[in-house]
Specification:
The protein has 448 residues and is an all-beta fold. It has one helix at residues 322-325; strands spanning 13-24, 27-35, 45-51, 58-64, 74-83, 86-96, 111-120, 132-135, 150-157, 160-171, 176-186, 193-199, 208-216, 219-226, 241-248, 253-256, 261-262, 269-276, 282-288, 299-300, 302-303, 307-312, 315-320, 330-332, 341-347, 352-355, 358-363, 366-370, 391-393, 401-408, 411-416, 421-426, 434-437, 442-446. The chain has two domains: 13-289, Glycosyl hydrolase domain, family 43 (Tachylectin-2, Chain A); 325-446, Jelly Rolls (Sandwich), CATH 2.60.120. It has a six-stranded antiparallel β-sheet with strand order 24-34-25-30-31-32, with no helix packed on it. A five-stranded mixed β-sheet has the order 4-3-2-1-20, with no helix packed on it. Strands 13, 14, 15, 16 and 17 form a five-stranded antiparallel β-sheet that branches. The longest helix is centred in the C-terminal third of the chain and has 4 residues, at 322-325. The chain binds beta-D-fructofuranose.
Length: 448
């Protein structure tokens, strides 16, 4: 198998953030940041695939591409909603202030960002001539950054449409850039008014990307991808975080305590996006960053399984979406790499697993993993020398430890204690064996 069987990948070339994830007229639509000409990041388009079940995806080609002066250098991340049967796509329009003489697909200096939208009658045809700008580039004295304001996520509550945008501002007291979220409202999904902003000076990040604010029951949850929070030089510096927050729909005030958690402790996850599935469950899908193209050199970028997000006792849990979970109904005794596998196992202090070179063990009441033997030596995400870590662990577990481990081509996802924590990793060169010690209960399932 050269491609994951159940994980979402681009048919060819580069993919980063999930965009416009929506259940629309009986089908799931998943758009994605896409560079169609190479396995590395460049001028952003929106790729588009649709699915009836979140398992089988049909490639619908490119939905958004640069076509206006304001988005001449790219269509950055954004979201989708349905209004009166039409699909509304919101995205960040990018123009470069200078071209890079060696590569027109990356900026020569600054990006100039405005927010734009496109209405599609059917979610299949996207007339790129009909794009319209909805929030122009910010001027110096305005709230919001002219270059780094992006990733509109739109939702509806009662009769109002809401939008959160990631942005940055200068904290003049320390002359440092800091992340912020801007909140807008609209009565028709087209004309937008600024309402409020969230800043948090305790939280050390210079830009907050891809915010997503949603409700589970009566509880609001905020996901975002703050840049440059880990500064030790051993891993990607930026990571997706999740937190329970307060939100006042009248004033658009977001209240944040400082309990932000990694959305995934494997630390490859970035830029998650949520939507409601056909049964109104909150589902998140996440980009797993890949420092090099796939083993077959055809594609770069993979998403985690769609995960259902729930809250129990004030804690956030993730579980594999039931449509994916039901693929693993057949129990088997032989481990194979020719199909996606699930390994369910109770582990204790001293338990160890080695899945084709990917090592998992329990020590000091934490799950630890080491992917050193199934990873690339040189990591070049975004063509720079970003360091990518190989060893990860969960926070301390309270009682006992059950693992559900999903193994697919180049991807491993580990759900600890039924989703209290999840660790997901991209791997390269995994071998076809499973070894374990200090483990008595282990069951395996192979995908249908
Ligand atoms: C996050 C991100 C977004 C941006 C997009 C560009 O990975 O940087 O903030 O819209 O990727 O591809």
């Amino acid at each position: 198998m050269t491609r994951p069987k159940l994980h979402f990948t681009p048919t060819k070339n580069w993919m980063n953030d999930p965009n416009g994830f929506i259940y629309y007229k009986g089908e799931y639509h998943l758009f994605y940041q896409h560079f169609p000409y190479d396995t590395k990041w460049g001028t952003m388009h929106w790729g588009h695939k649709i699915s009836k079940d979140l398992v089988h995806w049909e490639d619908k080609g490119i939905a958004l591409y640069p076509s206006k002066d304001f988005d001449r250098n790219g269509c950055f991340s954004g979201s989708a909603i349905e209004i009166d049967g039409k699909m509304y796509l919101y995205y960040t329009a990018i123009a470069y202030d200078q071209l890079n003489p060696d590569n027109i697909h990356v900026t020569g200096n600054k990006i100039i960002a405005s927010q734009a939208m496109l209405i599609s009658d059917d979610g299949i045809h996207f007339d790129n001539d009909k794009k319209q700008m909805i929030i122009p580039v910010f001027q110096e004295d305005q709230i919001g950054h002219p270059n780094n304001t992006r990733d509109p996520k739109v939702w509806k509550e009662k009769d109002t449409y809401y939008m959160v945008l990631g942005s940055q501002y200068e904290d003049k007291s320390v002359h440092e850039m800091r992340g912020e979220i801007l909140v807008y409202t609209s009565h028709d999904g087209v004309c937008w008014d600024y309402q409020n902003r969230l800043i948090n000076t305790d939280f050390d990040s210079n830009m907050w990307e891809c915010p997503d604010l949603f409700k589970i029951g009566d509880q609001y949850v905020l996901i975002m991808s703050p840049e440059n929070t880990i500064k030790d030089g051993t891993n990607y510096p930026s990571h997706a975080m999740i937190s329970l927050v307060g939100f006042n729909p009248d004033t658009c005030e977001i209240t944040m305590n400082n309990d932000m958690y990694f959305l995934d402790y494997g630390l490859d996850v970035y830029a998650p996006q949520t939507t409601l599935d056909k049964d109104h469950r909150r589902v998140v899908i996440n980009w797993l960053r890949m420092p090099c193209p796939s083993e077959d050199l055809e594609w770069n970028g993979v998403y985690t399984f769609p995960r259902v997000v729930t809250i129990k006792n004030n804690r956030i849990y993730f579980s594999v979406h039931p449509e994916i979970e039901k693929q693993f109904s057949q129990s088997v005794s032989q481990f194979t790499l020719t199909n996606a596998m699930k390994i369910s196992v109770d582990v204790k202090e001293g338990s160890r697993l080695d899945i084709g070179g990917y090592k998992i063990w329990i020590e000091d009441q934490k799950v630890h993993i080491d992917r050193q033997d199934v990873f690339v030596r040189e990591a070049k995400l975004f063509n720079n020398d970003t360091k990518v870590g190989t060893k990860f662990s969960t926070p301390t577990l309270q009682d006992g430890c059950h693992l559900d481990i999903y193994v697919d081509t180049q991807v491993i996802e580990i759900y600890v204690n039924y989703g209290e924590y999840v660790l997901s990793n991209v791997v390269y060169g995994m071998k076809e064996y499973l070894k374990y010690e200090n483990i008595t209960d282990l069951v395996m399932f192979e995908a249908k």
